[in-house]
Amino acid sequence: MRHYKYCWCFLIELHFKRISGTFAQFYTWLITETYFRGPT
Fold first, then answer.
1. pTM as predicted
2. pLDDT exceeds cutoff 70 at 38
3. Domain range annotation of the chain
């Protein structure tokens, strides 16, 4: 499951790097927080 997590983040980052490098890092972090940690 952890392998899938890193693979998922990698694909997202790779996709959004085409649009904006800086935004990609933030968006990858945001999705990771949302999906894998959940709302507090």
1. 0.36
2. no
3. 2-30
Structure tokens at 32: 């990771």
Average pLDDT over the chain, rounded to an integer: 73
Question: pLDDT digits over 6-18, tens only?
Answer: 777 777 777 766 7
Within 10 Å of residue 30's Cβ, how many Cβ atoms? 12
C-alpha distances out from residue 19 to 5, 16, 27, 38, 40, Å = 22, 5, 11, 26, 30
Give how far Cα 11 sits from Cα of 7, 31, 37, 39, 40, Å: 6, 12, 19, 23, 26
**In three state form, how does the secondary structure of 14-35 look?**
HHHCCCCHHHHHHHHHHHHHHH
